[in-house]
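## Example record

The block below lists the input lines for one assembly entry, exactly as stored, with component labels intact.
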Amino acid sequence: DSGVTQTPKHLITATGQRVTLRCSPRSGDLSVYWYQQSLDQGLQFLIQYYNGEERAKGNILERFSAQQFPDLHSELNLSSLELGDSALYFCASSEGLDHNEQFFGPGTRLTVL
Amino acid sequence: SQQGEEDPQALSIQEGENATMNCSYKTSINNLQWYRQNSGRGLVHLILIRSNEREKHSGRLRVTLDTSKKSSSLLITASRAADTASYFCATVYQAGTALIFGKGTTLSVSS
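Predicted structure tokens for the full assembly:
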């Protein structure tokens, strides 16, 4: 158990809909990262937050957004969903800013029908 | 695009044998990390090697880094069935701000 929790575990929704994925980092970790894992694209970094502020952006679509709240939990919002958004979404956390030794949550499997 | 490329894509060995996976990357890095993923589950950090280090050990794991060849290898000695998983290398660019993962090596260890 990494200490990172993600909800929900599974999400099935329809095209055009909007969903919110939630992540609670390990106690004491200030950085939260979001990743998307699909068969064709592999594991892609989406975005990083550190202590409530956006710090780094990767291959995140404009339809996707994230935030980190004062209690350090984070939410990833996916809107106008397309079939191609079906994937595993992972949250990870680490102590500092520098992307070292990240602790991954169990993931949310999103299926868009 | 992925920064790291693992080789081989898949590896099947018997329990007790050693498993070697390689990773090549394209640009200068600050550090290189190896992660393990059991089927469909979250990734687990195995080891981090910095650009000024050449070799690192952790239990049955040995990682080497050759910055001149832009490559790293992960050796798992005396493999066990429980080592069956996908292994990913991930790099942090020297001037970058993200951890970039390769596509992984799928290791199968049979008893």
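The longest strand of chain B covers residues 29-37. The two ends of chain B are 36 Å apart (CA to CA).
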